[in-house]
Specification:
Elements (H helix, E strand, L loop, with lengths): L1 H6 L6 H15 L2 H14 L2 H11 L16 E4 L20 H11 L6 E6 L10 H11 L7 E7 L2 H15 L7 E7 H13 L3 E7 L18 H24 L1
Parallel strand pairs: 1-2, 1-4, 2-3, 4-5
């Protein structure tokens, strides 16, 4: 299923739409279709458009001060996908450290007694350690006591993370207690993650990090010049919006 989740959206993203329009234009000898494909690619690669899609996917959230966050039963840091570089299979590198340090900041502020890392793992990197184990080691190095750290089993997507977290919390707290967690994940991923955790019976307080669009940007000519980075952000935002719509449809 994880392969299907990764592959199917391609045909509804700018790159896939562009390729389909160009192929249709060439096969049918319709220049209008080719120009339409070029227009889709150009617009989706424009930083101004990219930022709008990204902020919409982020739900227009903002970064909160740790001191303003209420207390909860646990802090849950979702996996973000670490890079396994060439060499020793046990070594991985940061993709983005905001989720980890967001969780550490909340723990140090005594916002919850437990720090939970999910065990992100992908089948096409079978030799990589689950991300939760790696982050638990980092947390130990920073002085978090071993008995305050929990990790889930291997998980490959957010739905599995929510179920694995619910299982851990069920072992920590008696049945009947409404379990509430501080959920730490990228802002662009937060709304979908909250929906899935709620379905798993977990009340969440969002602590979004890893924002993709800086605040107070000036409108300059550079905002209209296409770039690969802008295209990547649009496609990431669209994947999140499609995923959110899919799970909302299942819930209805």
């Amino acid at each position: 299923m994880i392969y299907l989740h990764k592959i199917l959206p391609i045909f509804f993203l700018p790159t896939g739409i562009t390729l389909l329009l160009l192929m249709a234009g060439l096969l049918l000898r319709r220049r209008a279709l080719c120009w339409a494909g070029i227009a889709v690619l150009w617009l989706a690669s424009t930083p101004l458009i990219s930022d709008a899609f990204t902020r919409a996917a982020e739900g227009w959230q903002s970064r909160e001060r740790v001191s303003a966050v209420p207390e909860a039963h646990a802090i849950v840091v979702l996996s973000s996908g670490r890079l396994q570089p060439p060499g020793d299979a046990s070594i991985t590198e940061w993709g983005d450290a905001d989720r980890f340090y967001g969780g550490i900041d909340l723990y140090r502020a005594k916002k919850a007694p437990l720090l939970i890392f999910t065990g992100g793992w992908l089948p096409w990197q079978p030799n990589a350690r689950p991300e939760g184990e790696v982050l638990a080691d980092y947390a130990l190095d920073l002085g978090v006591p071993r008995d305050r750290i929990l990790t889930t089993d291997k998980v490959s997507n957010t739905e599995e993370e929510s179920r694995a977290t619910a299982k851990l919390l069920a072992n920590q707290y008696p049945a009947g207690i409404k379990r509430r967690v501080l959920l730490v994940t990228s802002a662009i991923h937060m709304r979908r993650a909250q929906l899935l955790f709620l379905r798993a019976g977990i009340e969440t307080i969002p602590f979004p990090v890893d924002f993709r669009v800086p605040t107070d940007q000036l409108l300059t000519p550079l905002r209209f010049i296409p770039s690969g980075g802008a295209l990547s952000r649009v496609e990431t935002a669209l994947r999140e919006l499609y995923g959110l719509a899919y799970y909302r449809f299942l819930q209805s």
